[in-house]
Amino acid sequence: MSVSMKDLDPAFRGSGQKDGLEIWRIENFKPVPIPASSHGKFFMGDSYIVLKTTALKNGSLRHDIHYWIGKDTTQDEAGTAAILTVELDAALGGRAVQYREIQGNETEKFLSYFRPCIMPQPGGVASGFKHVEVNAQDHETRLYVCHGKHVVHVKEVPFARSSLNHDDIFILDTESKIFQFNGSNSSIQERAKALEVVQYIKDTFHEGKCDIASVEDGRMMAEAEAGEFWVFFGGFAPLPRRAPAEGNEKHEETAFKLLCFDQGKLDPVNYESLAHELLETNKCYFLDCGAELYVWMGRNTSLQERKGASEAAEKLLSDSNRTKTHIIKMIEGFETVTFKSKFKEWPQTPDLKLSSEDGRGKVAALLKRQGLNVKGLMKAAPAKEEPQSYIDCTGNLQVWRVNDKDKALLSSSDQSKFYTGDCYIFQYMYPGDDKEECLIGTWFGKKSVEEDRITAVSLTSKMVESTKFQAVQARLYEGKEPVQFFVIFQSLQVFKGGLSSGYKKFIAENGIDDDSYSEEGLALFRVQGSGPENMQAIQVEHVASSLNSSYCYILHDGNTVFTWTGNLTTALDQELMERQLDVIKPNTQSRSQKEGSETDQFWSLLGGKSEYSSQKMVRELESDPHLFSCILSKGNLKVKEIHHFTQDDLMTEDVFILDCHTSIFVWVGQQVDVKVRLQALDVGEKFVVLDFLMENLARETPIFTVTEGSEPPFFTRFFSWDSAKSLMHGNSYQRKLAIVKGGGAPALDKPKRRTPVYSGRSTTQDKSQRSRSMSFSPERVRVRGRSPAFTALAANFESSSNRNLSTPPVVKKLYPKSLTPDSSNTSSKSSAITALAGSLDRRTQTPTPESVKDGSESEKAKQEEDAKDSAATMTNRVESLTINEDAKENEPEDDEGLPIYPYERLKTTAADPVTEIDVTRRETYLSSAEFKEKFGMTKEAFSKLPKWKQNRLKIALQLF
To answer: Where is the composition biased (Low complexity) (predicted)?
Structure first.
C-alpha cells in the first residue's frame, strides 16, 4: 500500500516513535493531541483515539490503536474516529491492530492502560462543556457498580436501593466517606480490585481526605459502618434477587460468518471449514463471531479500500443494533492470536514481516523529508546477546541420579557429569534477601526412558512438598536448559549413554548398542559457554561434520588427546577448552590443532574430512513476558491473558502463568488449595501443549513452579517487585483493605540483596568477586553446605512449636479487632537478647532436612556441630552489638520525622493501641532513647541488621 502525505493528518506525523501512550480527541472532525496530564480523563460526549506503543525485546515497536466512543458522542464524530485510525495505522507502516471501544463495554486491554479504572465525565467539546474541579461543599452523592477480577469496569448507576444486588460490588461516594458494598455472591478478587477504585475516588475527588468503609452484604445493622451505609437508603431491607439487566446483548453460539468486502460490496463467503487460504491479499474480509467483528485487510489493499471497510463495519453493527460488539481491525501479517485461533490452521508467514519493515522504512524516510524526528520509528534497543542468570552461584549444590525407582546421591566430583540416557534431581540452596532460597529440579537426558522420568518427577515433587512448597521446582530437558541451570553447575559435562538400570534395560530389550562414554574410548566434545561460571563440554558424534568453526573441541582416543580450535573462536573460548580439558583428561598431554592445519591422524580419528558448519548456534532469545490467569478444571486448562500486568495482579487465591517463551513460570498463591499446588507442574505442561500465543513452544520448554512468598529473583525481575507484600496475611481483599485503610502500601525496610556472582563474559575479576569455579581444579572436591546463619535460624523456625518455614513468623492480621493486654512487664534489653540467643540454641526438635537425609552420618554430625557453633556465635554477635552501640551513646539519632509514641501503645498486645501508623514498622515510632533501651542499639545499627534478625528482635519485643 502506497502512502502519500496527503493521506496523513498532520496531527499523526511523528507519532509512535517511542514506548508509551498518545491520545487524540476528535474536535471538529480533526484529531487534537491530549496532554499526558489528561490521559485517562474521558468525556461522554467525545470520541478519542488512543495509541499504545510498546518497545519489544527483539528491537521492534508494536502498536495498538483504540478509538473510544462516548455514549453521548455524535455518529459523525464516531465515524471520523474510525476512519482516522486507518490513517494513523498507515502513518505507522500499516502494522497496528485497531480496536473499537464503546463506553461501558471497553476491552480489558484498553482498560489496562488506565489502571485502576476510567470514570467518564458528562459533557464534551460539542456541548461546550468545560471541566471544573468539584468543590467539596458541592459534592454529589453517587453510586457506582464495579465488575472485573483483573481490570475494573466502573459504571455509575442511579442512587437508589433498587440498583443494589447480591452479585456485584457497589461504591457509594458520599461527602465525607466512601463505602464499598460487597454483594454476597461477588468474588474475593473482584472485591480487592474494587478497593483500588475506592482509593482512586478518594485521591481524585476528595484530595485524599475522607474515610473508607467496607460493608458486607447480609450484615444488616450489626456493625456501625453497615448501619451508616443503609441510612443513605432509608434503612435496611432485604435485597431481591437480581433481575436480568436491560440492554444485555446475548450472542448466540452460531457458526462464524465470513464476509468479503470488495469494491464497496459486502458478500458472504461459503466454506466447509474456515481456512487461511480463503483470505486473498488484495481484498478485505469480515469475520463475524458475535461478540467480536474482525476486519482483516489484505496487504495489497489501498488506503481508501481500508477506510471503506472500516465504514462498512460500523454500518453493519449500527443496522443490526449491536452496540456492544467489539470491532478489531488488523493488517495481513499482523493478526492477533485470537483471530488466528478461529481458523483450522494458520501458517507461519515470516516473509510478510520483512516486507513490513521495508514499508516502515519508507514511511520513516517520508517523515524525515518533512523535517520530523524519526529516531526510534524503526526499532528499539536490541536485546542483549548473553542473558543474566539472576541467581547467586555460591550456594550449596546436591545432585542425585535416578535409578531403579529411587535416587542415588552423587559425590561432589561427579555431580557435574551427566549422561544423556539418565535423569537427575538437583537441589540448590543459595543466599536470598533475608533467608536461604531453594531450587529443586529435574533434568531429563535426551535418551532417558519414560520410567525414569516419571520417577524423577515423583521424587522431586515429594522433596518440594516436604519444604511446604517453599522451594522453587524446575523441570528441565537436555538442550533446553535455562542460563540459571548452567550457572548453578558452572562446569558441566554431558556424556553419551547412561548408567541407570532403566536405560541399560531399554537398550538391551531393543537391541541397541551401548555407546556410553568410556575414558579409554573414542569421544569428541564441543566446548561452549560464556565464562568460567558458565561452561559446558557436550559429547557429540565423533565425525568431522560435528565440527563448527565457531567452537573449540576436545578429541580423545584413550590417552591420545587433540584440541581443535575453530577460526571464529575467541581467546575466551580457548580458555574454556583448557578448563574442560582438565576435567575430561587431566594430567594428559594434548596436541593442538588449528582449523585448516590439522594432522592426518586427527582426521583419521574422525573418519576422514567432510564439510561442517561455521554458524554459531544462536541461543533462543527470551521474548516479552505475558501473564495469564489459569483454571484447571476436569483436566482442561483455561487461561486468560492479563495485559500490562503488575505484581498486584498476582492474587493469592489464584494460579498464574508467566510465559517468557524460553521459560514458563507457574505462580501459586498462598491461599490456593494444596491439591491444586500439587498440580502446578501439570498446569505448566498443559500450557506448553496449549501454546496459547501460537509461538511454537517446544515440549521441552523449561517450567518453574513458584509459590507466593518464595519468588526467586529470576522471576521477580519481570515485575516492579515489593517483597514486603508477601509478609501480609489474609486473602487479597483483606490485604488490599489493610493497605487502603492504612493510607498506603506497607513500607518495610528491605535489606539489599547481597551482590550475586552472575555469569558474564569477563575473564578477569577481583579476588573478592571470584566465584568458586575461578580456582577450579579437577581434583578439588567442592564442599558447600548450609550457611551457619541459616542453620542457626532454621533451628528456631523448624521447631515443632513454630511454623516450619524459612521466613520468620508474622502476625496473621494487620488490624486485629480485639487484643488481649500483655500480662508481663515490659521486656528489657537483656531479656530480649537472652530470648533470642536461647531460641537460636534449640536444636532438639529440629527435623532433618531432605538434603541431610540423603547424606552420610558424618555430614549430619558436622552440620549439627556447625549449628551449635552458629548459635553461640549469634549470641556473641548480638551481645557484641550491644556493647559497641553503648560506646556510641552520644551519637545523634534520626527519627525520620515520624511522631513518637510510648512503647506500651506500640505493642501488638497494647490495651490502647496507636492507630493510623504503618503497623509493619512499629519500632520507628519509638524515641531514640526508648529504642536504644529496648533493642540495645541505635536505629541506624538496627537498620543494618539482616531482615530476619530484625524480625526476631521485634517479635521478642512484641512489635511484630
So the answer is: 818-834
Cα–Cα distance measured from residue 296 to residue 95, given in angstroms and rounded to the nearest whole number: 12
The label of the residue with cell 537425609 reads 853
The single-letter code of the amino acid at 194 is A
* Nearest C-alpha neighbor of 759 from the set 558, 508, 370, 485: 485
Phi, psi values for residue 55, rounded to 5°: -85, 120
User: 55 - beta bridge partners?
Assistant: 61
Spatial distance between the Cα atoms of 282 and 297, rounded to a whole number of angstroms: 8
- DSSP designation for 535: E
Intra-chain end-to-end CA distance of the chain, in Å: 66
Three cell numbers, residue 899: 511522631
CB 53 within 8 A of CB 26: no
d(CA 531, CA 573): 8
Indicate if the pLDDT at residue 793 is higher than 50. no
DSSP letter (8 states) at residue 668 = E
The whole-model pTM stands at 0.75
Number of H helices, E strands in the chain: 24, 32
Q: Which residues in 70-195 belong to E strands, given as ranges?
A: 97-102, 142-147, 153-157, 169-173, 177-182
Tell me the one-letter amino acid at 554: I
The answer to whether residues 494 and 539 touch, using CB atoms and an 8 Å cutoff, is yes
Cell 525496610 found at: 749
Average pLDDT over residues 826-849: 41
Identify the band that residue 869 occupies on the pLDDT scale cut at 50, 70 and 90. low
Read off the amino acid at residue 185: N
pLDDT tens string 599-613: 999 999 999 999 999
The closest of 376, 358, 379 to 368, measured between CA atoms, is 376
Closest CA to 771 of 756, 783, 781: 756
Per-residue pLDDT, averaged over 55-81, amounts to 91
Indicate the pairing of strand 636-642 with strand 626-633: antiparallel
CA distances from 152 to 38, 284, 299, 566 (A): 20, 34, 36, 58
Q: Are 408 and 424 in contact (CB under 8 A)?
A: no
Alpha helices, H only, 510-623: 571-584, 600-605
Residue 796's pLDDT is 43
pLDDT (0 to 100) of residue 254: 56
Task: Tell me the pLDDT band of 925, cut-offs 50, 70 and 90.
Answer: confident
| 2/90 Cα distance (integer angstroms) | 9
Higher confidence at residue 723 or residue 797? 723
8 A C-beta contact, residue 464 and residue 473: yes
pLDDT of residue 484: 95
SS3 sequence of 358-388: HHHHHHHHHHHHCCCCCCCCCCCCCCCCCCC
- Residue 802 clears pLDDT 50, i.e. is over it: no
Distance CA 960, CA 954 (A): 5
H or E segment and range at residue 564: strand 560-565
Q: Which residue has the cell 552420618?
A: 857
Q: pLDDT of 337-380, one tens digit each?
A: 999 999 988 987 654 443 344 444 544 554 444 444 444 444 44
Of 82, 118, 46, nearest to 317 by C-alpha is 82
The SS3 assignment for 794 reads helix
How many CB atoms sit inside 10 A of residue 783's CB?
9
Cell numbers for 254: 452460531
Per-residue confidence band for 896, with pLDDT thresholds at 50, 70 and 90: low
CA–CA separation, 666 vs 687, rounded Å? 10
What is the rounded CA–CA span in Å between residue 620 and residue 702?
12
Q: What is the C-alpha separation between 60 and 354, in angstroms, rounded?
A: 12
Closest to 527 in 3D by CA, of 578, 577, 595, 590 = 577
Whether 595 and 565 have beta carbons less than 8 Å apart is answered as yes
Query: What would the pLDDT profile of 505-546 be if each residue is shown by its tens digit?
Result: 999 999 999 999 999 999 999 999 999 989 999 999 999 999
Q: What is the mean pLDDT of the chain?
A: 80
Neighbour-count burial for 418-427, b at 16+ CB within 10 Å, e otherwise:
bbbbbbbbbb
Query: How wide is the angle at C-alpha 826 spanned by C-alphas 821 and 832, nearest 5°?
Result: 120
